[in-house]
Amino acid sequence: MLSFKLPVALSLLAATAIAQSYGDNSTLGPNADGKYELSAEGIRAYFIPYGASISNLFINDTNGIERDIVLGFDNASHYSVDPFHPHLGGVPGRYANRIKNSSFVIDGQEYHVTPNENNNNDTLHGGPDGWDFRNFTVVAHTTDSITFSIVDPDGKEGFPGEVVSYITYTLTPHTWHLKMVALATTKKTPIMLSSHTYWNLDAFANPDTPTALNHTLSLPYSGQRIGTDGILIPNGTILPNLQYDVNDFWSAPKQIGANFTSPDLLGNCGTNCTGYDTCYLVNRAQNGPYDWRTTGSVATLSSPWSGIQVDIFTDQDAFQVYSCGGQNGILPIKSTQGLDGRSRVVEQFGCIVMEVEDWIDAINQPEWQRDKKNIFGPGDDPYVLEAAYVFSVKKSS
Ligand SMILES: *[C@@H]1O[C@H](CO)[C@@H](O)[C@H](O)[C@H]1NC(C)=O
Ligand SMILES: *[C@@H]1O[C@H](CO)[C@@H](O)[C@H](O)[C@H]1NC(C)=O
Ligand SMILES: *[C@@H]1O[C@H](CO)[C@@H](O)[C@H](O)[C@H]1NC(C)=O
Ligand SMILES: *[C@@H]1O[C@H](CO)[C@@H](O)[C@H](O)[C@H]1NC(C)=O
Ligand SMILES: *[C@@H]1O[C@H](CO)[C@@H](O)[C@H](O)[C@H]1NC(C)=O
Ligand SMILES: *[C@@H]1O[C@H](CO)[C@@H](O)[C@H](O)[C@H]1NC(C)=O
Ligand SMILES: *[C@@H]1O[C@H](CO)[C@@H](O)[C@H](O)[C@H]1NC(C)=O
Ligand SMILES: *[C@@H]1O[C@H](CO)[C@@H](O)[C@H](O)[C@H]1NC(C)=O
Ligand SMILES: *[C@@H]1O[C@H](CO)[C@@H](O)[C@H](O)[C@H]1NC(C)=O
Ligand SMILES: *[C@@H]1O[C@H](CO)[C@@H](O)[C@H](O)[C@H]1NC(C)=O
User: Which InterPro entries match (predicted)?
Assistant: First the structure.
């Protein structure tokens, strides 16, 4: 059953009113590819109901050429039939990342959710029919904002209780804002959301490289990371990112590929994996109270070739980085991307996934004391994730 909390009910009414006021404007419906367009000064994007995903994000590069800097498919209907489902640009839910042994305990009761990874040893991104495998409902769409909703029933994928969620994306000049709200309406349940966006800030048009290894990353608050086993399940340890180690992105910015010749990078993203698939912690409180909107960005990614830079601000306390080691030249790029004469696919290390989130699998690490940010029940404050991705462009010299 659907029992809305008052603020959500009010925002739903407001959202519906907005949707109705634009309801007869055909330019605000989906386009021929099934995508919903938003724009603001210096930024234009498409979103789709499938997984409440971003499918295209256009920023003008240092030469004034529009670049589509996120991965996705050309046609919204392809997302449902693509056999690989790399979680392109969607909202993993109701619990992002991995759940150890596909189980957890709440108030002494053990729950088992549907496994879908590593020979069914764990549950990734909410299970085989997690949120980003489903079409959300578009409840509002204006020229610079869209709100999606989903009602996740009690027992779906084995999770206890119903969850009702609203995902709002808004564009303001040069900025993409994300606001995700979720309510556990009937039982206590784990909730952790994120945005699983894949980036290539060159839109695969850099003649020197089809990879993102030359992108520069900075994680100024991330002196620590969550230790994981060979299949990327947290093993309870918090590890130091010692200065100059392969995981040191805090002491100075460095290229994603800077340490790819270091033997230390082998196994850094699971057994036999070279690169990053790592949950970095974000430690901001050390400098006193902070306002996530104005305190420095938790991450900065830039490409020297396109000159495009994104600064990520968020209220979340962890940040996952995946360097696309699993890509192997099968996933196609979009018609809006690429370079004539080059294969139109994503090569290994061709992208970077960056996920604002909470400490992964904290539901199975009670000693981390993250329950208030991982487990939600009726009567609790809603789960909220906010982030702002701010774009800028280095002028060509
Ligand atoms: C319809 O959308 C266009 C383009 O966004 C806008 O200029 C126009 O004012 C809208 N019309 C109505 C009736 O909302
Ligand atoms: C999108 O894909 C659907 C189903 O595969 C197809 O019917 C439709 O024509 C495609 N749209 C465009 C614009 O190619
Ligand atoms: C890119 O620049 C062109 C030409 O000035 C402009 O029409 C377009 O809106 C810009 N694109 C974005 C995403 O700002
Ligand atoms: C999602 O919606 C698209 C477009 O209407 C449709 O082609 C697709 O089958 C739907 N997918 C699911 C999983 O419902
Ligand atoms: C994993 O879950 C199974 C039930 O699905 C349970 O029997 C087993 O004890 C669990 N293993 C660990 C290590 O927690
Ligand atoms: C997964 O579980 C099975 C059976 O419990 C085990 O044999 C296997 O080694 C585990 N690990 C992986 C990575 O499949
Ligand atoms: C790209 O990265 C490689 C390896 O890190 C480095 O050798 C090369 O100089 C970089 N190129 C540019 C243009 O930064
Ligand atoms: C946990 O994983 C990390 C990273 O692989 C490893 O260094 C550490 O020894 C492991 N600790 C335990 C207790 O398994
Ligand atoms: C990683 O790259 C940085 C920047 O080039 C360098 O300072 C550091 O020594 C490298 N670390 C390792 C372990 O190779
Ligand atoms: C890791 O690589 C080694 C050497 O290529 C191989 O023998 C081993 O089976 C691989 N292990 C896994 C879990 O893929």
Answer: Aldose_1/G6P_1-epimerase, Gal_mutarotase_sf_dom, Galactose_mutarotase-like, GH-type_carb-bd
Residue 8 belongs to a domain: yes
CB-ligand 4 contact for 271 (6 Å cutoff): no
Q: Where are the alpha helices (DSSP H) in the chain?
A: 6-21, 371-374
The question of whether 355 is a catalytic residue gets the answer yes
pLDDT of residue 20: 47
Q: How far apart are CA 92 and CA 257, in angstroms?
A: 27
Predicted local confidence at residue 27, as pLDDT? 56
Instruction: Give a yes or no: residue 286 inside a domain.
Output: no
58 CA: nearest ligand 3 atom: 13
Segments of the chain with pLDDT less than 50? 1-10, 12-26
Question: Is the CB of residue 254 below 6 angstroms from any atom belonging to ligand 7?
Answer: no
Residue 87's CATH number: 2.70.98.10
Domain count for the chain, please give it.
1
Write down the pTM of the prediction: 0.92
- For residue 54, being part of any structural domain is answered with yes
Q: How far apart are CA 51 and CA 47, in angstroms?
A: 10
Examine residue 156 and state whether it is found in any structural domain, yes or no: yes
CA dist 294 and 70 (Å) reads 25
Contact 118, 231 (CB under 8 A): yes
pLDDT digits (tens, 9 = 90+) for 141-160: 999 999 999 999 999 999 99
Cβ of 231 below 6 Å from ligand 6: yes
